[in-house]
Design brief:
The chain has 341 residues and is mainly β. It is built from 3 helices and 19 strands. The chain has helices at 110-113, 294-302, 311-340; strands spanning 7-12, 33-38, 51-54, 60-69, 75-86, 92-96, 114-115, 122-125, 130-138, 148-157, 161-165, 168-183, 193-203, 206-215, 221-232, 238-249, 253-260, 269-278, 283-292. Strand 15 (221-232) and strand 16 form a beta hairpin. The chain is elongated and about 110 Å long. Residues 1-5 and 11-28 have low confidence and may be disordered. Residues 33-156 form the WxL Interacting Protein peptidoglycan binding domain.
Length: 341
């Protein structure tokens, strides 16, 4: 399988810059260093510059990645092995290495079978010099169908720049990701998705209901489209709807799909989520009841741009204005009667 997204350069300034997306050695720019994977003989697709390796049970293999410093100063680089996850925008994320947060269905996360020696996890690279990092892979004893997916990340240390722009602090960090995809068999694995939970939340401080979706199979789900609709329980009137297409989900991962609440308060009550997901071949449908309780009120307090329903306020203002006019009329009539007397 050709996965050109497996080798990328990340530049974080509250945004992600993709550079040299089809090559492990990306354009250096002002990053000051680059990486190059040495492709071994058991590479499935030799046109790719990330690792796409055909392995066997119990097989041990060491692959190499060269890290080159083209800057005019000595640099420090951290190397780590990460497993592939899926972020809330429906994109595969290769920067996660906290195994406590992996999906429960992920039996063999890449960091558990691919190791970097301790003395190569922190590199000091001289001016115009290079270092070679060796990654040792040891496959599980049992045969594995599907894909084990992850990456080797190289992050520059002590070179972050904090820029102040009109009171906003921007933190620049640059790192390279060299993808690693391991397979043993040619068996086609059928993807399968589960709806794990539905609950209110804040996404970027905006009111949302998130549906946690899980791909519990060792296969990448591509071209995923989702149509989610929310109803009041026992009502056919749709309250909110969110659609999204062209998502990609990592093997054995979960992610939160957000249903936009249109900046309105999360009202307590009982609701129903009707959601359809499809990759063009398989289709999954859910009809799930959920409740928004007092936790929704706490989320409303922290939300931004919240559009409150002020209908009751307008009624109160109108009633007050009517009452004032009525009092004025009564006072005027009373004065006229007093004058007539």
């Amino acid at each position: 399988m050709k996965k050109s997204f497996l080798s990328v350069l990340f530049g974080v300034s509250f945004l992600v810059i993709f550079c040299g997306i089809t090559e492990a050695k990306a354009a250096e720019g002002d990053v000051g260093f680059s990486v190059q994977a040495n492709i071994p003989a058991n590479q499935v697709d030799k046109k790719q510059t990330y690792f796409d390796l055909k392995m066997k049970p119990k097989q041990k293999q060491t692959v190499e990645i060269e890290v080159m410093n083209s800057s005019n100063e000595e640099i420090q680089v951290e190397a780590s092995v990460n497993y592939a996850s899926t972020n809330q925008t429906g994109v595969i994320d290769y920067t996660k290495n906290d195994l406590t947060k992996k999906d429960k269905s992920l039996k063999y996360p890449l960091p558990s079978i691919a190791k970097i020696p301790d003395d190569q996890k922190h590199l000091t690279i001289p001016i115009n010099g290079k270092k070679t990092v060796k990654v040792t892979i040891e496959m599980p004893s049992e045969s594995v169908d599907g894909v084990i997916l992850g990456a080797v990340q190289f992050k520059k240390k002590n070179t972050t720049e904090n820029k102040q722009t009109k009171g906003i602090s921007l933190k620049n960090e640059y790192s390279y990701i060299v993808g690693m995809q391991l397979t043993e068999t040619d068996k086609q694995v059928t993807p399968h998705m589960n709806l794990l939970s539905v609950k209110p939340a804040l996404v970027n401080y905006h009111t949302t209901v998130v549906a946690k979706l899980q791909n519990d199979q060792p296969v990448i789900i591509k071209n995923l489209s989702i149509d989610a609709k929310v109803y009041q329980q026992n009502s056919d009137k749709m309250l909110y709807q969110t659609k999204k297409a062209d998502m990609i989900v990592a093997p054995n991962s979960n992610f939160n799909f957000g249903i936009d609440w249109k900046n309105k308060p999360l009202k307590e009550g009982k609701y129903r989520l009707k959601m359809t997901a499809t990759n063009g071949v398989e289709t999954w449908e859910w009809d799930e009841a959920f409740t928004i309780g007092k936790e929704g009120q706490d989320l409303n307090k922290d939300a931004v741009n919240l559009k409150q329903n002020n209908g009751w306020l307008y009624v109160a203002i109108a009633a007050g204005a009517f009452l004032i006019v009525l009092i004025i009329i009564l006072v005027i009539r009373k004065r006229r009667k007093n004058k007539e007397k």
